[in-house]
Request: fold
Amino acid sequence: VGSIMNYAGISRNLLAFADSLIGHKVGGLAHVNVLLSTLMGGISGSANADAAMQSKILAPEMTKRGYDLPFTAAVTAASSSISPVIPPGINLIIFALLANVSVHSMFIAGYVPAFMMAAALMITIAFISKKRKYKPSREHPASGKERLGYFGKAIPALLIPFGIILGMRF
Reply:
């Protein structure tokens, strides 16, 4: 899914949307990395797909803009662990089937831990970015109109989870 999204340009639209939301913060691209993983979690449900997509698109951009390669790799690896926790995470479906638990219940139970993981990563990134003086990816916060435009381009990617869930239901 990550490779297909890269070639189709879907991941670039998601990246632009995430950047418009949080790219103005110190360490902007690292924050975008976490937010993109959170968005990808609802699309692919796979840490491998998430890591593949971000390693190809975001990691080179981060190193080009002065982020240390170990920091870039750590953020990409840690943030990709959010994807399987957000529904429709593959691990959630497998666990629900093996433990004879409702898939619906597992999906509902995945959101809070995933958002807590994302928040903890972003707080850690904020401290490290201030210490290392990583710059924001945008000079100013995006306007509401600009964010809405990026959101419009990201809608096809954001609707993929509904297609997956509807496909499972039918």
Q: What stands out?
A: The mean pLDDT is 84. The radius of gyration is 16 Å. Residues 10 and 157 are 6 Å apart (CA to CA). The chain has nine helices and no strands.
